[in-house]
Hints:
InterPro entries: DUF6495. By secondary structure, the chain is an alpha+beta fold. The protein has helices at residues 8-13, 15-24, 29-38, 40-61, 100-108, 128-137, 146-159; strands at 64-69, 72-78, 82-90, 115-123, 141-143.
Amino acid sequence: MKYTRLTKEQFEELHQEFINFLATQSITADEWEDIKKNKPEAAEQELDVFSDLVWYGVLDKVEFLEHISPNQIHLFKCRAKDMHLIALKLKEDKVDLTTKEGFQWLRDNLLSDDIEFFNAKKEYSDDKHMDIFKLIQQGASITKGELFQYFEKLVRSSEK
Length: 160
């Protein structure tokens, strides 16, 4: 397995898609029950293959990721050949950016010397999807990019 197996809840959410996946392999509901009962290793393999297919489909569509920790924010824009990173780091542990109050403090003090901004570009390795997957495994969340776009405009205007 390349990525990670879906959780029980994720499999339940994707129940119909899994049925369709089995159907593409000409496996009926009765045959699936038989495989689970008599060939558990084969059943495990099917679950792993399906999980990888789902992950690949998700990772292929990721445009933005964000990872917010108590004193740092990492915002990623996943482009075709590279990732654009905008990072913010508090110079001191004044607040916790993962809280509503901490985020409000950030908004109120955005241009203060207490916050460092970083702007970088990183080429993907040979496997773009795995690079994105690793960030998710480390705690990044897939987003629509509102925060990235906000800070991208801010960084651009400060460079002028």
